[in-house]
Write a structure and sequence with these properties.
Layout lengths: L1 H18 L11 E5 L13 E5 L13 E5 L3 E2 L2 E6 L4 E6 L8 E6 L14 E6 L19 E5 L8 E6 L3 E7 L5 E7 L6 E4 L8 E7 L2 E7 L5 E7 L5 E3 L8 E6 L3 E8 L2 E8 L10 E9 L8 E11 L4 E12 L5 E11 L13 E4 L8 E4 L2 E5 L5 E5 L10 E3 L8 E6 L1 E5 L1 H4 L1
Antiparallel strand pairs: 1-2, 2-6, 3-4, 3-7, 5-6, 7-8, 9-10, 10-11, 11-12, 13-14, 14-15, 15-16, 17-18, 18-19, 19-20, 21-22, 22-23, 23-24, 25-26, 26-27, 27-28, 29-30, 30-31
Length: 432
């Protein structure tokens, strides 16, 4: 009898193991696959989002409190959820179609549990909705104002509005009538020219975070129709937004103490310093510093990493000479980071780059695979996974202004547009 029981238990174990995906075929121990795929470009605008789990889940934890689908243009999206136990699949149905070129981020928080009530490893990923058009542009309107500009659907009417801030006029809201014409609708008191536009309270509309002075920021909450009211003040600097701990709320990152990066966690609309990541810079040409950083999941492990470009140079009679570095700050999923250097070289470099050419770092999936790549001046940095990067030179360079990435011609790949004395467009079909 004992021998029979042993064989029966062994058989059950083998059968169970045969139905569980191998770790190599999964995104983590809880999630086998996602659709649309990670970093997908040109996703159908009416697509559902499917999460295939590696094991049965506690269906009661698959709710909107623990699942966040957000848009860079409008904030958190309303969704409906349907879990299919027979296939271990969660179907997320956004309650509106995605907008053209919209960047969508899906976040699954640790509030989700498996059948044994074990919390999952928090996970997030992003994709871009398809754009249509032929790459030709016409002027529909002009606004007689200059300053810092952010675009987003501030009043939740389905089109893209503009917020413009400068030192003279403060921060103004210009609403889109749906035909590309803009009308001034609101001046946000106390906010100034330095601001960011994100859904900081994850309530489904875009809020404003503005510098109050060099050491403080103030949150201005949107009431859902584009009216902003002052809220909490935090003792931090203004920075770029990213949900570093995968709780569904945007946090802040900014440069501090040279090239170091400070991470500030969002706690109900107030921001608190979590940690500062040391970024080493060894160069004996330190007359002028410059730096930039991007927030992306560079290793497809479901959390946001930080890519830092940092450089210094000194001027000789004819040109600048210096050092440039690119580091990836790898997130462990808990907001702790490890520094991995991927580029260290002098400039002027062998790619023809000079000081004014290398100030900006651009991230995009230029080869339409599943991971994020980088562009630096004339250099393409292709991500092969597992922190393996391939470097190659391009036939053009950009300088002057930060480039923007979008599928401008609707051909299902990403293009780069930049200002270099005249407007030029770079088509990824031809160059990348």
């Amino acid at each position: 009898m004992k021998k029979y029981l042993f064989k029966k238990c062994l058989l059950s174990f083998i059968l169970l193991a045969s139905f569980r995906p191998s770790i190599a075929d999964t995104l983590n121990i809880f999630i086998q696959n996602v659709s649309p795929g990670m970093n997908s470009v040109s996703v159908n605008r009416s697509s559902d989002i499917n999460i295939l789990f590696t094991q049965q889940m506690n269906e009661s934890t698959l709710n909107e409190e623990n699942i966040n689908v957000s848009s860079n243009m409008s904030g958190r999206l309303p969704i409906s959820l349907n879990y299919v136990p027979s296939t271990r699949t969660l179907i997320i149905d956004p309650q509106r179609n995605f907008s053209a070129g919209e960047d969508i981020r899906v976040t699954l928080t640790s509030g989700i549990q498996n059948f044994a009530n074990i919390p999952i490893t928090p996970f997030s990923y992003s994709f871009i909705a398809e754009a249509t058009g032929g790459g030709y542009f016409s002027i529909t309107d002009s606004i007689d104002i200059t300053g810092n500009v952010r675009a987003g659907d501030a009043d939740k009417d389905g089109d893209v509005d503009l917020l413009v801030g400068n030192e003279v006029d403060g921060l103004k809201v210009f609403s889109n009538d749906g035909l590309g014409h803009f009308v001034f609708t609101e001046n946000i008191p106390l906010a100034n020219s330095q601001f960011e536009l994100e859904d900081y309270d994850a309530d489904g509309d875009l809020d404003v975070l503005s510098s109050v002075d060099n050491d403080h920021v103030q949150l201005f909450l949107n009431n859902g129709i584009g009216n902003f009211s002052p809220s909490a003040i935090s003792n931090v600097h203004l920075g770029k937004a990213g949900d570093f701990n995968n709780d569904g709320y945007p946090d802040l990152a900014y440069f501090s103490n040279g090239f170091d990066i400070s991470i500030n966690i969002n706690n109900n609309g107030t921001f608190h310093l979590s940690n500062t990541i040391a970024v080493g810079h060894e160069c004996n040409l330190n007359c002028y510093p410059a730096a930039d950083f991007k927030i992306e999941d560079m290793d497809n492990d479901g959390d946001l990493d930080i890519v830092v470009l940092h450089m210094t140079a000194c001027e000789n009679p004819f040109f600048f000479m210096g050092c440039r570095y690119v580091d990836v700050l790898k997130n462990d999923g808990q907001g702790n980071f490890t520094n991995i250097n991927i580029l260290s070289d002098p400039f002027p470099g062998d790619d023809g780059s000079c000081w004014e050419h290398v100030i900006f770092l651009t991230s995009l999936n230029f080869d339409n695979d599943t991971d994020m790549d980088l562009i630096l001046s004339t250099k393409k940095i292709s991500n092969s996974g597992d922190y393996e990067f391939q470097f190659s030179n391009m036939s053009f360079l950009y300088r002057g202004q930060r480039p923007n990435v979008f599928d401008f011609d609707g051909d299902r790949d990403l293009d780069v547009v930049y200002y270099d004395y005249v407007l030029a467009e770079f088509d990824s079909e031809n160059e990348i």
